[in-house]
Description:
The structure holds 2 protein chains of 2 kinds.
Chain A: H1 2-7, H2 17-49, H3 54-59, H4 67-76, H5 83-95, H6 109-142, H7 147-162, H8 165-179, H9 192-221, H10 225-231, H11 236-273, H12 279-288, H13 292-320, H14 322-326
Helix pairs in contact in A: 2-13, 6-7, 6-9, 6-11, 6-13, 7-9, 8-9, 8-11, 9-11, 10-11, 11-12, 11-13, 12-13
Chain B: E1 7-8, H1 19-22, E2 42-47, H2 62-68, E3 76-78, E4 84-86, E5 89-94, E6 100-105, H3 119-130, H4 139-142, E7 147-154, E8 157-162, H5 169-173, H6 183-188, E9 206-212, E10 216-221, E11 242-247, H7 251-260, E12 265-266, H8 274-278, E13 283-289, E14 292-299, H9 309-317, H10 321-328, H11 359-368, E15 373-374, E16 380-382, E17 385-386, E18 388-390, H12 403-416, E19 420-422, H13 428-436, E20 442-448, H14 454-459, H15 477-487, H16 492-508, E21 512-516, E22 519-525, E23 528-529, E24 532-533, E25 539-540, E26 545-546
Helix pairs in contact in B: 9-11, 10-12, 15-16
Amino acid sequence: xxxxxxxAPAALRPGGRSAAVAAGAGRRLAAAVAVMxxxxxxxxxxxxxxxxxPVQILLGMNTTASPAVQARIRAQYGFDRPVAIQYLRYLDNxxxxxxxxxxxxxxxxxxxxxxQLGPTLQLVGAALLVAVVLAVVSAVATAGRWPVLRAVAxxxxxxxxxxxxxxxxxxxxxxxxxxxxxxxVAGAQNLASLVLPAVTLGLxxxxxxxxxxxxxxxxxxxxxxxxxxxxRGVSQTGVRLRHAFRHAAVPLVTLTGWLTGSLLxxxxxxxxVFGRPGIGSLTLQAVTNKDMPLVIGLVLLSAFAFxxxxxxxxxxxxxxxxRLRTG
Amino acid sequence: xxxxxxxxxxxxxxxxxxxxxxACGAQGGTATSSSTPVAGGSLTYAANTEPTCxxxxxxxxxxxxxxxxxxxxxxxxxxxxGAFHPWLATSWDVSADLKSYTFHLRTGVTFTDGTVFDAxxxxxxxxxxxxxxxxxxxxxxLLGPDYSxxxxxxxxxxQVTFSQPFAPFLQAAxxxxxxxxxxxxxxxxxxxLCAGGKASVGTGPFVFTSYTKGQxxxxxxxxxxxxxxxxxxHTGAAYLDQVTFRFxxxxxxxxxxxxxxxxxxxRAVPAAQVKGLKAQSNVxxxxxxxPGGVYNLWLNTTVAPLNDQRVxxxxxxxxxxxxxxxxxxxxxxxxxWSPISPTTPSYDASLVGSWPYDPxxxxxxxxxxxxxxxxxxxxxxxDGKTLSIEWPLLPAEYVTDQRDTLGQAIQADxxxxxxxxxxxxxxxxxxxxxxxxxQEGILDSSWSRDEPDVLxxxxxxxxxxxxxxxxxxxxxxxxDKLTNAGRATLDTATRDQDYAQVQQRVIDLATTVPIYNPLxxxxxxxxxxxxxxxxxxxxxxxxxxxxR
Lengths: 327, 548
């Protein structure tokens, strides 16, 4: 991604930070539309390949729906039409900004997504904050010094990476909610209810980021510019924060972008354990029930999220690393 | 606290320690058992499932019925003995041929949007339920296949007619699925009542205030309510100002909210957590036996090798049901002997002990059926073919009550008599296609309803078609006759006799292996008083109050 940015004409102007950023964003938005259309098509095709009668799946097991009702559903959702017609009809609606109606929940997809998106964004945002803060503090403090503390930090990072979030969630609940009553057990009603889910979701990410950042920092601290900076009278911590950290931050940003995507996926487990509303549980429900309009709506949303994330990451490179701006 | 019915002391000794609950220890809060109801306060109920659709006329989910009960009232109210009492109908006449039901409606009843409840409102609701455009998945079937229509006789009188005698109608009319929404709400938001919230307008003791998908549904008191069912202990408005349903699919979290005080009542406490919860001083655990179909294994009579009655009987007698159920559910759940549970009307208690575990008999039966050879794994063979039966596993998200673990115990039992059970796990689409298509050897399910007419659903040949629930795929004239006869009479003695014959016949034909009686296990904070349960084991909040 970074190489593509370097080739952008606006980026050739020396020091043109804002121009480079604008050009990059424009290109990205254009590409986003194509990516999302492709994603919708792939999702549509994938759902066609899922076996089973959509009406049966929609009705589930404990139903006594009469054949007349089943025929009605089939006709209303166009299951009786050829797949190509269904696809075209779907695209037509999409172009008109209509994501359609969920088969299972019988509510507009756009409404379902918009009401469920907020809590998930809060959760992912808070988890990311937890992850980055923990990783930066742990790595900056222990990189290349204090061997015992460094070993302890590394150990906890490993534990954090390898613990399943379901388990972490239950343990946190047991300690902080059931026993000490510090945080509510479930829900998304206030800030206190966000703490435990955010920590649960953020911990494994903090582990990965901490390890990567520490390694980057330690490599940077071996560079010749470090003794030079020290010779100019910059303090040990100053070197770490102002000079070494910048070097180590590029892989950190790449990884954070990628991990944010995985946070969206990981949210489903955490939402389940903590009884939070959100996109995760909605997605699980939609896929399980082969709820085509909702699945495609959610695929479009995640495609958009990934395009947005990679754009933000690329733009952050330009901010962090001046070499990319001048080409 | 007293319960209306089915309350059974838990004698079980759970063996597994539950870390979540043992960590909680004893907390304060001695329950003040005040017997005078206190108005005001709020109650939070933690449920394990969430409605996909809040429209009781459409949905088939139990949770929808339980939640909507707060918003919609019914014509009649069924008590714990299966007798019917006035509610929105003050009296009713049933024609001798059971084809016509005339209801005399209560006056002065209004929906919470101000609309008057009258005969036209009843007609509007029933007409809407049977309209294919409503896409009713359950309520329409409660009106039966022979529903002719609803006629407004005058504002206070309404007549419902059927082309065939239909005895189960009164029971159906008492369920929330045939409850009444304001005709204005029906017209304004056709098919949008699914979304819940303020659009759901009924005459009930509570008003549907708000819904946050994935989190909660909130109900506030209807202050004008003065038409509670005759089965209730008080009249006038509900005591509670607010009832909140929390949706918590994870059982540890759900039970944890009771310990932390975030909820007052918790539904679906797993058998393994019962002991830990009972150890808490401020919580009471109640178990209620669910009426309707127990957890049954259905043996498909149309596919080999189960089309041979001897093989079916061998399977039925070759499963050590008592031991399996006790070990998987820590003695909390009881094994079943009949396809319907003991709390269902017309349950035949004579079946108890009538088909005990008898692997020797199973062996003899299989020998007689010609399955005398053995393959390398010890399974029986006939003409070089292994005695193998497919019993598909439901996709994980549909598995409840650890039925997958129970299935492993059953599989192991049958291996001992040389029967190989394969349990492929399909996606739900493939599962349903194969199940409804009659391609599977064994299927399993339970079906909650306080009416022996569920036997019609399970065994009548008319229930084999698409959307039917007859998984034995047996077209038996005798069972058709008996299940139709039960529908055609209100005489309890006759029904008992007909339905007893059905229960015995399906065990004799070995089309069914009843496994366990489903239980509703509810954890209730001791501050909650007056909470009752309807015949479906759904919590009723109208008479509940909190003392704290």
